[in-house]
Amino acid sequence: MLRQRKSKRERREYRDQALQRYTKQRQRNLLARPGVHDFILVLDHMKAGFNVAKIFRSAEAFGAHEVHLVDIGPFDPAPGKGSFKKVPARFFDDFSQSHRDLVERGYTIYMLSAECECPLTASELPLKSAFVLGHEEWGHSFNPEDFPDVACLSIPQYGQIESLNVAVAASVVMYEYVRQRHCQAVVAT
Q1: Structural domain boundaries enclosing 41
Q2: For residue 170, is pLDDT > 60?
Q3: Taking 60 as the threshold, does the pLDDT of residue 149 lie above it?
Q4: Quick check: helix, strand or coil at residue 27?
Q5: How far, in Å, CA of 101 to CA of 106, rounded?
Q6: pLDDT value of position 189
């Protein structure tokens, strides 16, 4: 069955409905409470497409403390299944603002990139960890040399493409953080 292309009117109606959902859930987000874990995701200058909502969905599932949105406009929260209103969101115009906030609160900051030499799985992640995920095409919005305290981690990959969808990469890093916390708790008992 061939799928017909939506008319301009249908696309405009969808965008208007998505904006209404975003506005409503952003207001409800003011009541969101931090999750059970102390990690923070920093979504750095990402496209406001479905990946942002999907990352909120995983952040809620893994118990994220909060999510920073750096220079990200309105997005359709529908793919997140209501999680945008449950995980605290903080909005920043540029990375330096988010960075300053994280440093003041004692977070160790990691940027994720395929070019990083240190694999995520070989790193002991501190309790207060923040993970910066960049735009899928252009990467991070900042020059890493301007932020020497931001460590660099990669997710080990063995295929030929060496590229993960950003929402998948976010889920992998959250899983590894939670796995390490669980393993430390089991060893301590």
Answers
A1: 35-188
A2: yes
A3: yes
A4: helix
A5: 9
A6: 47
